[in-house]
Design brief:
Elements lengths: L8 E7 L6 H9 L6 E7 L6 H6 L6 E5 L6 H11 L4 E4 L5 E2 L3 H10 L7 E10 L2 E6 L14 H6 L9 E3 H6 L11 H9 L5 E13 L8 H14 L1 H6 L3 H15 L2 H10 L7 H15 L2 H30 L5 H23 L7 H5 L9 H23 L2 E3 L6 E3 L13 H11 L9 E6 L3 H8 L4 E6 L5 H6 L6 E6 L9 H11 E9 L9 H9 L2 E5 L1 H4 L1 H7 L7 E5 L4
Parallel strand pairs: 1-2, 1-4, 2-3, 6-9, 12-13, 12-14, 14-15
Antiparallel strand pairs: 4-8, 5-9, 6-7, 6-8, 10-11, 15-17, 16-17
Helix pairs in contact: 8-10, 8-11, 10-11, 11-12, 13-14, 13-16, 14-16, 20-21
């Protein structure tokens, strides 16, 4: 692109109390190889020194404005567009970074007269800390579905992140800009709306680093679900015409499961009820609501609330006991109501937790206070109730374990996976084993995963002391291992995929060759395959095999993390453990 052909691009960064990350974001814009730009920093009411930093920037391309109050990122971006002098606007976030050639490569598509586009985006790479955690949009989606007229794809798959967008300014304004009423996911809503009448360009290269953080707006799960429901209402005709309505709503239900937002999904489905006019629509909606109501995560959430209710009930009864003991006049009046509420919550907990009858003595004896009750009798009744509630609390406490992956408190059920992060118990056990492997000082452990799972991959990438690699193609496992240096890996994680390979014995030989003498391997098998053939082949190759479970972790750890006593994984090593 010749210099004279380079139109001005206005880059807009909204920011609110991000002084720790803003400089890196700003520097990544000012370092662009496409230098014909202006940078507009819109301060959305920061009080952390952002103004001092921004006013101290000496680059003449930088403009700074501080809005009145905290109005949200959409309002800040729209304000930036109003001030923009460029023919094109690009959006960036104050905690992310651009690669130097981002604008250069995107602007080339606007100059390509063979493909008329009004918005260009690119891939972005997500990071947890400094560890890469995946590329968006996923590589699995074919290129042809990522550019051009992609409304149908976007209706189902959010692919365009705000810091990847470059758009013609006037077309952005004509399309209605960002919706300032949405609290989050506004980039997704805008790109769906924009793609109705515009062609989209795409650079198939990760040109943006997006850093996940605890206060990132993308973590406002409830608001994300509400925005999805808003999109369904606004795009209902397009969804119906594309036969995607129930695919979209089913995906939302799945998100509600993962994000633990069941009540929000149920609420939004009820708000959308007027859209479901046919009998089939009504039945589909009822099925989704029923699935949500019966989900393990929803049940877990209900149990958590009931646990808090029973604790609050106990505190109220203790308070009344002290009042009765102190002869306060209002104590007797409040006892009957307290007993009634205690009876309701006790019945609720009995149903949810299947509480045995011996824990319910007071509930069965009395739910009201007789008029002739003496002070001693009242104190006795209250004591019975408090002891009964305490027994229920103790029973509930025994039903709780902690997921070692997502950290959620979970109540025991028949499900073989965490209801929140959806991690299978066998994989949780394997990760618990890895959590116990800690290197010396600054040493880093090299880990190879054969046929990776997303959860295991995310865990390894978030460990600063692990150098992670994987082989994801079944057809390439043996060939890749042959090219791998001897004694390279400290840890090798194998999922059951190599059970189906024709060259299993040769594969075992290669695994032995590439493992360090002190290395360790993990094999995870389905529960119905307790004696896989590959274990014999591992043993014949020279590996020592040990089945680990409660015998390794100990009863206390198994109780803490809810591991079944029968749950096991296999460890294979060159040296005897």
């Amino acid at each position: 692109m010749n210099k004279i052909e380079r139109p001005l691009v206005s880059v807009i960064i909204p920011t609110y109390n991000r002084i720790g990350t803003l400089p890196a974001s700003v520097n990544s814009v000012l370092a662009q190889t496409y230098a014909h730009l202006e940078l507009i920093i819109v301060d959305d009411g920061s009080d952390d020194g952002t103004d001092k930093y921004a006013k101290g920037l000496t680059d003449s391309r930088v403009k700074y404005i501080k809005s009145n109050g905290n109005n949200g990122p959409s309002a800040a971006r729209n304000l930036g567009v109003k001030l923009a002098q460029g023919e094109y606007v690009a959006f960036h976030d104050s905690d992310d970074e651009w690669l130097p050639e981002k604008l250069e490569k995107q602007m080339r598509l606007f100059q390509n007269h063979e493909q008329e586009v009004d918005l260009v985006y690119c891939e972005y790479e997500r990071y947890h800390g400094q560890a890469a955690a995946g590329i968006v949009p996923p590589k699995e989606i074919p290129y042809m579905y990522k550019q051009g007229q992609i409304l149908e794809v976007l209706l189902i798959q959010p692919m365009i992140g705000t810091p990847t967008i470059v758009v013609k300014k006037q077309e952005f304004i004509n399309a209605g800009s960002f919706n300032e009423n949405l609290k989050t996911f506004e980039d997704y809503e805008f790109t769906v709306r924009f793609s109705q009448n515009h062609a989209i360009g795409f650079v198939e290269e990760p040109l943006v680093k997006v850093y996940d953080s605890l206060n990132s707006v993308n973590r406002r799960y409830e608001d994300r679900l509400r925005t999805q429901a808003y999109i369904v209402r606004e795009m209902i005709d397009s969804l119906r015409d594309s036969n995607l309505l129930w695919k979209k709503l089913s995906d939302m239900q799945r998100d509600a499961e993962v994000l633990n937002c069941h009540d929000i999904f149920i609420e939004e489905m009820k708000h959308l009820a007027d859209l479901f006019v046919s009998e089939q629509d009504k039945q589909n909606a009822a099925n989704l609501l029923q699935k949500t109501e019966r989900s393990d995560a929803k049940t877990n959430q209900s149990k958590r609330l009931a646990k808090q209710e029973i604790a609050d009930t106990k505190q109220e009864l203790l308070k009344i006991y002290l009042n009765v003991y102190g002869d306060h006049s209002s104590a007797s009046e409040s006892m009957s109501e307290a007993f009634k509420q205690a009876g309701i919550i006790t019945a609720k907990c009995t149903e949810l937790f299947k509480i045995p009858s011996e824990s319910l003595s007071a509930y069965k004896r009395v739910q009201t206070v007789p008029d002739s009750c003496t002070k001693i009798e009242k104190l006795s009744l209250l004591t019975d109730w408090i002891e009964s509630i305490g027994a229920i609390e103790a029973f509930i406490e025994q039903q709780i374990y902690e997921c070692n992956i997502c950290g959620q408190k979970i109540f025991h059920s028949q499900s073989p996976m965490c209801p929140f992060c959806k991690t299978d118990h066998r994989e949780r056990l394997a990760i618990a084993f890895l959590q116990g492997l800690q290197p010396e000082a600054d040493e880093k452990l090299t880990l190879l995963q054969i046929m990776p799972s997303i959860l295991m991959e995310n865990y390894a990438l978030n460990r600063a002391d692990i150098l992670y690699e994987n082989i994801s193609s079944v057809s390439e496992i043996y060939c890749t291992l042959q090219k791998t240096a001897a004694e390279k890996y400290d840890i090798i994680v194998c999922l059951p995929a190599f059970e189906n390979l024709n060259s299993v014995p040769e594969l075992m030989i290669e695994l032995y060759r590439i493992m360090k003498p002190s290395g360790i391997g993990l094999a995870v098998y389905p529960p119905d395959n307790k004696n896989p053939d590959s274990l014999n082949q591992l043993s014949e190759t020279g590996f020592y095999i040990e089945e680990i479970g409660e015998n390794w972790f100990g009863e206390e750890i198994c109780q803490m993390y809810g591991f079944d006593k029968e749950l096991t994984i296999y460890v294979f090593t060159k040296e005897k453990l």
